[in-house]
Structures are given as structure tokens and as C-alpha cells.
Amino acid sequence: MLTHCKVGAIVFFVSDLARSVAFYRDTLGLPIDAMDGHDGPFAMGEVGELALVFIPRPARAGESPVVVFSLEGGIDDHAEALAAKGVEIVVPVSESPDGGLSLDFLDPDGNVLSLHQNEGAPRRH
């Protein structure tokens, strides 16, 4: 089902956004920038083709980091296919901070995984 996608991002839920930005940018030297999204502030940077996203929000064990698989479209089709296979959907298809769409679900051990497609991509194939 996900054979034509790639890991596009890793999302970290962090307790202190400024502290995390300082660590990843100033200590590790990664190009991380803070910004405002439709749900509030967050930070983002790229390491090669992989985006690192930092969202200020407490997280329970298993909720962070979240591996995000990038789709070129068809997120609604993927959501239906996952649900049909008994996968637990924890956040249905909804708008992501960058204006695209995302869907969060659990693997068998309760780890959160996510699908994301960019703004304007078709919701169905």
C-alpha cells in the first residue's frame, strides 16, 4: 500500500519549543527555524530530503517522535484501506500545519505513524 511513498518527516512533540530549537539548531547545527502555523507556533528544518518538525505539545510514551510517510495524493483512499484492515486511526484526515493533509494511526505496538500529502494534491486516486 505504501510502496511508492517515502519517509518525508519526523515530528517531535516537545515541551519547550525554544529549548528544542536551540538544541537542534545551535547545538547540533541543523537548519531549524521557528514559525507560525494555523494551530500556533512550530519549528521546522530539513536534513537532506527529510523534514524535522517540532510541535510544542506534551506527549505520552509512544507518541513522539512520529514517522511521517509522504504521499503524492490519495490520502482518503489510504485512510479507508487502513480502517478496512483494522488499523486504529487516532487522528482522521485533517489539515496539517503546512496546509496539506495528514492522517495519524497506530502500529501494533501503539506507536504513532502518519501519512501526509501536500496542499492541492488529490484526496483520491
Structure write-up:
The chain is an alpha+beta fold. It has one domain (6-117): Roll (2,3-Dihydroxybiphenyl 1,2-Dioxygenase, domain 1). It is 17% helix and 44% strand. It has helices spanning 17-27, 75-84; strands at 6-14, 32-37, 40-47, 50-56, 66-71, 89-95, 101-106, 112-117. Strands 2-3-4-1-5-8-7-6 form an eight-stranded mixed β-sheet, with helices on one face. The mean pLDDT is 88.
Instruction: Please describe the biggest sheet, giving its number of strands, its sense, and whether it closes into a barrel.
Output: 8 strands, mixed
Q: H/E element string? A: EHEEEEHEEE
Task: Kindly provide the name of the CATH class.
Answer: Alpha Beta
Number of continuous helical runs = 2
Helix fraction bin = 10-25%
Radius of gyration: 15 Å
Taken as a percent bin, the fraction of beta residues is 35-45%
Shape label: globular
Give the strand line-up of the largest sheet. Answer: 2-3-4-1-5-8-7-6
Domain VOC: 6-118
Protein name: Glyoxalase
InterPro entries: Glyas_Bleomycin-R_OHBP_Dase (IPR029068), Glyas_Fos-R_dOase_dom (IPR004360), VOC_core (IPR037523)
Pfam families: Glyoxalase (PF00903)
Would you summarize the structure shown here?
The protein is an alpha+beta fold and 125 residues long. The chain contains two helices and eight strands. It has one domain (6-117): 2,3-Dihydroxybiphenyl 1,2-Dioxygenase, domain 1 (Roll), CATH 3.10.180.
List keywords for this structure.
8 strands; 2,3-Dihydroxybiphenyl 1,2-Dioxygenase, domain 1; 2 helices; 44% strand
